[in-house]
């Protein structure tokens, strides 16, 4: 099981929230960009078979920054580079849901995603999971 050091609360970790739901969520999905230490341990731990996983308490802060309501806009342009695409996933899910349920004015969505290698694109299909 991954563990953290006494001073780990002073560190930032490369976790990005990728879940979005129109209602209350029972699960928070994170994308972890493994570096070293705790994040690398967590990725290795997460690769175990699902029947061997356990839940544990995590403390986190956020969200940080400003969330812009994009529902009033008819056309939206999202620009992302590399791993930065993951911060756009909740927005994209919300806009697609708004379009499908006619609760948003958004009718055109343009996504520009610049990547240095195809490996960045293959990590996960965030739209195959409805949450």
TrEMBL record:
InterPro entries: Ferric/Cupric_Reductase (IPR051410), FNR_nucleotide-bd (IPR039261). It comes from the Eukaryota. GO terms for cellular component: plasma membrane. The keyword Zinc-finger does not apply. CDD domains: NOX_Duox_like_FAD_NADP. GO terms for biological process: copper ion import; intracellular iron ion homeostasis; iron ion transport. One of its GO terms (molecular function) is ferric-chelate reductase activity. The keyword Transport applies. Keywords: Transport. This is Ferric reductase NAD binding domain-containing protein. It comes from Penicillium italicum.
């Amino acid at each position: 099981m991954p563990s953290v050091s006494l001073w780990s609360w002073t560190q930032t970790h490369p976790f990005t929230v990728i879940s979005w739901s129109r209602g209350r969520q029972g699960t928070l999905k994170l994308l972890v960009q493994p570096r070293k230490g705790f994040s690398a341990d967590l990725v290795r731990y997460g690769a175990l078979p699902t029947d061997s996983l356990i839940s544990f308490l995590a403390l986190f802060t956020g969200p940080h920054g400003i969330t812009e309501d994009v529902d009033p806009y008819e056309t939206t342009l999202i620009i992302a580079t590399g791993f930065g695409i993951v911060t756009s996933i909740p927005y994209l899910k919300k806009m697609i849901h708004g379009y499908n349920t006619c609760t948003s004015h958004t009718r055109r969505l343009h996504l520009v995603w610049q990547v240095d290698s195809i490996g960045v694109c293959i990590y996960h299909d965030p739209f195959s999971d409805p949450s």
